[in-house]
Give the backbone structure.
Amino acid sequence: MIDVTFLGTVSGIPTRDRNHPAIILEYYGEQKDTLLFDCGEGTQRQMLTAGISFMDIDKVFITHWHADHFAGLIPLIQTMNLEKRKKPLQIFGPEAERFVSDIVDLGYFGLRFEIEAINIPFEGAAETKVLETEEYEVYSIPVLHTVPAVAYAFVEKGKWNIDLQKLKKLGLERGEWLKKLKTEHKVTHKGKTVKLEQVADMTSGLKVVYTGDTKPCDTVKKISENADLLIHDGTFLEEDITEKAHHADAKAAAKIAKQAKVKQLILTHLSRRYKDVKPFEEEARKVFENTKIAYDFMKITLK
Ligand SMILES: [Zn+2]
């Protein structure tokens, strides 16, 4: 299960109702993992309101180094230090080493924990696996913005589920031995050699994509293929978009959602000029029905 919480949903300048970009992804696997995507100014207070602990975050993914997407890192690192964090913090992003080192030089942090900065490729059109755990992988791909920028995909690994009917047919019973079968894929049980695929089916995992700031582009389409949730830049309405914008409009984002065959689209990073977001919903839904417009503290559960 995955919970996605939007902590900030505005573009460059915040409003009373919308904070700068930050998204929390909580993955409930063998243990809970909390991943933070972008970290705009004010993210800490948004986390407090949303009931998310600072100390649970071990991995931060920055899409690009514009202040509305990273300025919250400075106070977050300070808080982690004041709270006596010991475990390392990983920060992923294009040119992450340079920017993280600049951030750490900005004040007298007296850091008690290690910050590992991981550079993400930002040129070309290839997907890169930037993280792999037992249960999920995170990929990145370059996107089209005014500065080096990437989109991220969180991809849960497929899981083997034992089919009791298949077990029965082979005259086998449930038991501890199935654990070994799941890890080793082939075991000899009661004199019989059993392969995992004989008694189990592979179910595909969940996929969540976050674009950060970008013009509509093919790389986003590629990384979003069959995603359960696509969180796309939706800064403008189609009528207001200009060539200079380097952002997407609702209609263009919806087209990508449709072409990539995603299940659900959420538009975020809305310009403060729009007081009413209904037209965004209408514009996008003409192209892709299952669209929602993000608001601060919106929470989506995927199962
Ligand atoms: Zn932005």
Summary: The two ends are 5 Å apart (CA to CA). The longest helix spans residues 73-82. Residues 8 and 21 are 4 Å apart (CA to CA).
